[in-house]
Amino acid sequence: MDYKKIIAALLAVTMTGAFTLVPSVNERNAEVLAAEETEDFSWLPHSDEEYKEFTEKYSTVACLNGYIILSEDPCADGGYSITETHEGTAEYSLYKEYNVRTGALDPGTSALPVKIYKPEKSGVLKITWKKERTWSETEPAIWEAVKYYSVADDLSVKEITEEEYNSNSENTSSDGIYPTDFKEYSKAIENNPDFYISDGKTVYFLNSAQSSAEQKLLINTNDSVEVRHDKYGYIFTPAQNGSYIISSDEYHEYIVDADSPEHDHRYEHWVTNYMVKSENGEISVTMLGRYGNKYDEKEKMIFESQYNAFSGGQIKGNHYFRYICSELNTDVQLVMKARYSSDEDADAEAVQNADLCVIKKYVSSGSISPDFIIATPDMMNYYVISAAEGASGQIILKDKKNDETYSVDVKDGQIVPGTLKPAELTDTDIVKGDCNNDGVVSAADIVALIRYLTGQDEEIYAGADVNSDGSINVIDLCNLKSMILAR
Fold it and tell me: Buried (b) or exposed (e) across 380-391, using 16+ Cβ within 10 A?
């Protein structure tokens, strides 16, 4: 039998459009889910004129449609920042922010910003906003707003009076040792050169820069994590018995000659590393080192490689979870160590539902800055697994070096911590016809199978054995074509 002629004929049918592919069930479900989760923020301002009308009608701080809205422009008076402090028993977070001139709900803090805060825990809340120059200890704020809110059990929010707040509030300030204003924050930085404070139950990781800075908290562990963003850093609560490698990852912005029309903005990347352990509720914090460099894309790539070597060298085992905490949200990743980079077999891949995740490979440099406090001469592969946007389901991962298979759950576009466990890949896990392991059967699988049968590719996934006879040949190609045509 002339396989090449048969393959050419089938390929011709495929390319001439003799059949029409329809979206898979997974693709249709994803479209429906995206439509259901789309939020309508059309009632917010999206132009200069709407911004002016909105602030005139509702003031610069408003409580609308279950959200707290801030629309005060820090740039209108030249070089100011909006600072925020809060007290009370309720909790909230910055849900979204955007600039009315961009026309999209994207992060941005230039002229005419809108910030949308979302309640996360019931109780009462006092929030104070100020427009001030944060680098000046003497210049007073030029604008201030103090608002009081009540958050119900269903997380609905309403504005209340100061008297109502005082009658329902409790002191939750960790005995007053955590900063609540810029003066206290400046003193905390001065008195704590390692940039953290602990009340014995939690740890407050301070933003080390009193100038403008973006701070994230990176938490590497296999134990449970509880963390929330505060005005001057992050408050972390460890498990009763837990071990963590934590890094305060900051991008500092410095303004040179701020009073000059030709002033310059400069950026630096600073990372402060800690080991946090909790035994029977007793917390110990050890600063492991501090790394700083001029920020650019090359430095970013070097840092990512070095950071995997650093965190992986401190944590036992071949797998751990990484929490990337920002002011807006927390992303969770799974990190797999895959032995040495000189080993061609050292690899990690998704062997089922690969479309649910994104895998990035990093190779440790082997020559790491002494400031980073890493003694890891080995050049190892690290695989960082993130969930695909909006994905939910279970991924099957293969550690090819050790011939080990694991499963991990994803939900709403996030890796679910604590769900990594050994798994066996059975016939029921294999999607028949899924030759390229993307989780769906489509024309792309015909192309993948043709490439394998004609010798262009040496390997193919088990789903290519469409008729389950133990071999992959042109009969499977015919069956695959029939399968797709029958849809």
Answer: bbbbbbbbbeeb
